[in-house]
Sequence to fold (306 residues):
Amino acid sequence: MNIGETSRASGVSVKMIRYYESIRLIKSPLRTESGYRVYSDNDVHTLRFISQARDLGFSVEQMEDLLALWRDRSRASGDVKAIALQHIDALQEKARALQAMSDTLQHLADHCQGDDRPECPIIEGFASAVAPEAKKRQPRFGVTGIDPRAHSH
Amino acid sequence: MNIGETSRASGVSVKMIRYYESIRLIKSPLRTESGYRVYSDNDVHTLRFISQARDLGFSVEQMEDLLALWRDRSRASGDVKAIALQHIDALQEKARALQAMSDTLQHLADHCQGDDRPECPIIEGFASAVAPEAKKRQPRFGVTGIDPRAHSH
DNA sequence: GTAAGCCTTCCAACGGTTGGAGGGTCAAGA
DNA sequence: TCTTGACCCTCCAACCGTTGGAAGGCTTAC
Fold:
């Protein structure tokens, strides 16, 4: 199976398959005489797993753990569970952070008339909300693991 | 007020203030004879607004809209509310997806506990959960406007 | 006068993904 | 057999938001 077919079967773009290989997330496949990459059904399976995890905001670093969890089926179940629980905590924390953002916005929106008059609590809330000295400067989105790219150019 | 003082007053780093200027999110400030940037209280206010919106996961692109609305006294609060509500939906959807992933992993962890046999059908199910042809390839994190950087290096 | 701490610009890196250039390979149809 | 078009290859650059660092100028206090 060549890379294009593999891409269609897995839902991972050709570009990303090659990228994942370059960062050693997946292993280098065999090549034909002419240099074409050749993949197996198992590789497709792995890529589908990766795609799934990426869709939910896992970093590549985390995916290495997840892949190990997935592949190392004969490992001690205690170790496996520890890794799984760690990822669950991370997921819960991300979901919580997103929910907090949503709640804050919802609260502001609730107090906004939404008509054509200029008064708007959302805007006012943004402008005056936080005393900056109370803010701890920490990685702004480190918790959430989601990306701000708003458009594919 | 120089840039350092402005940074401390607004909670936006010196680097980011210059970056926001470079992408024209904020306008270029006046300079002293020696080239130092000079900011007003109003600029601090604007930066605080920006910082707040970024904390809530708005992209720079979205902030341009919000800033325009903020500055335009005649804007309809309905416009602002529409942007906020759209954002709330995106955040909710992302939180929901993360929660589903967490549930799946929890299920996996529960099942694997104390089981020394290599078979793990739940892992198999997780790996092949999504039929790739059912996936629409869309900007992966475009909706939420949040960033995957997990660590400040 | 000198050291500390500002400030300036410029250049690079991160992660994850995409686009494109410039070129080789394969299969089908004329 | 020869061409055509769809594939494949590698390499380089861009995107976003943010940070770090280098190399140098300015201001202030001792």
